[in-house]
Amino acid sequence: MRVAVCQLNARDDRAANLAQAAGLLARAADAGADLAVLPEYVDYLGPAAGLPRPEPVDGEFGEFFARTAQRLGIWVIAGSFHETGPDSDHTYNTSLVFDRSGALTASYRKIHLYDVEIPGRVSYRESASVAAGTEPVVVTVDGVRVGLSICYDLRFPELYRRLAVEGGAHLLVVPAAFMLHTGRDHWEVLLRARAIENQCYVAAAGQIGDHDPGRTCFGRSMVVDPWGLPLCVAPDTTTVAVADIDLDRLATIRTELPSLANRRL
Questions:
Q1: Which of 66, 79, 83, 126 is positioned for an S-S bond with 175, CB 3.0–4.6 A?
Q2: Active site (annotated) includes residue 151
Q3: Known catalytic residue at 6
Q4: Which of 40, 55, 83, 217 is flagged as catalytic?
């Protein structure tokens, strides 16, 4: 299976962001991708005052990517968006998966929320406006078991172990809007660690560049193999990077270094 990670710079114009995403998906399809992954909050990264109204999974956001997946004939993991939440003060940060016909096959609500307070540097409480999901999700894409996650989830290895062991994942996906100041030191290290410890492929699609108000995302979208080797890395621009998933190689790695089979906890 050929996987594409789409790297874009979403800002405060939702129509422009969706058009940019559709263009990248078309490039992925032209490159022969079977599955394309978009970043977190692919439809809007901007001031809270302009945030689109939250929607159900079959709202405008879902319909847009359903049509796009059907038109291009590829699987699409539509990054994430603000899904209607449990109350008027909270949304869910939700990723949707569409098959080649445009049918919604899975949805995942981000479990780990980014609540960070670093005096003088970062003050961000995702939980003030987003409700946490509770269920890990694995979906089968053309015979490949794909475990879903979103951005800050990447720092919690227990989620990925459940996806790999209980869910039988071969590929772990990470739509993200990883901040520059942490991304430059932690992004690649964490992605490679999740691949090595779970003996899975990892496909991570990130936002890139400046986003109002005062937020800069790291980018460097990549696909990592189960040995921890980056197969492709996106340059620092809006682009698409493509790599092939080889389940025979995955099986060989798990046989020759059976760390999953040898676990005792």
A1: 79
A2: yes
A3: no
A4: 40
List per-residue pLDDT tens for the chain, 265 residues long.
999 999 999 999 999 999 999 999 999 999 999 999 999 999 999 998 899 999 999 999 999 999 999 999 999 999 999 999 999 999 999 999 999 999 999 999 999 999 987 777 667 889 999 999 999 999 999 999 999 999 999 999 999 999 999 999 999 999 999 999 899 999 999 999 999 999 999 999 999 999 987 889 999 999 999 999 999 999 999 999 999 999 999 999 999 999 999 999 8
Angle, CA of 42, 48 and 50, to the nearest 5°? 75
Element (H, E) at 22: helix 14-30
Contacts of 259 (CB under 8 A, 6+ apart): 197, 199
